[in-house]
Amino acid sequence: MSSTKNNKRKSVVQERHPRELRIDFVEILVQDGLNVPYLDPKTKDSKIFRFNVGSPVVAPCEYAGLYYSATLALYDGLCVPDSLYPLGTVLPVQKRIPTTIVHFDGWTKKYDACIPENELFTALYPGRPVDTLALLMAHEHNLVRSAQSKIKETKLGANAFLLTDEMYEEMERSWQRDTGESISFGQYVGRLPGPYFSNKPI
Question: What is the domain extent for residue 168?
C-alpha cells in the first residue's frame, strides 16, 4: 500500500460535508444491485449457489462495522434476509435465500459469521459492474469509518478491506466506463471536493 499522504485514493477533505450520508446511500444502491438476481422472476427460485466453498469474498462485519476480506467456509441453511425482504416477511422454504458461513481472513473461527448470500460480493476483479461498485464502496466505507473513529487504516484489524492505489484507480476507471461518470469515485461518495452527487445511474 502506498505511503503517499495526499494521493487521490485516501486523502480526505477537511471541511464538513455529508460524506457519511452519501456512503450510506451508495451502500443501499450496492445492496439493491446485489439483490437483483434474487428478485428476477427467471432466477429468483433457483437455488444454484453463487459462490463455491473457499471463494474469496468481501463481507460486512456487524461487530466492527467494517468490511473485511473473507472466505466462504460453507453454506448453512436458508433464510429470509431483511436486506431483501421487509422485516417479518414469511416465505416458503423454496423461496428462501441461501445462508453462508464466512471466515474473516486472519481472524480465529470464533469470529466466523452467518451472512445471507445476497449480502456478499466477490473479492475477485474484474466481475459484474455491481461487484466493482461494491469493492469501491467497501474501501470508501472503511476510510470513512476510520476517519470517524480517528483510527489509522493500519489499525482497522487484520484484512480490513482496503485497495492499493493501483487497484483503486483501475476499478475507478472501470466504474466510470460502466456508468458514464466523469467525476472520480471519491467525489461521487463525497470524500473529495467537487460535485458530490450525480444524476447518472450507478
Answer: 19-33+124-188
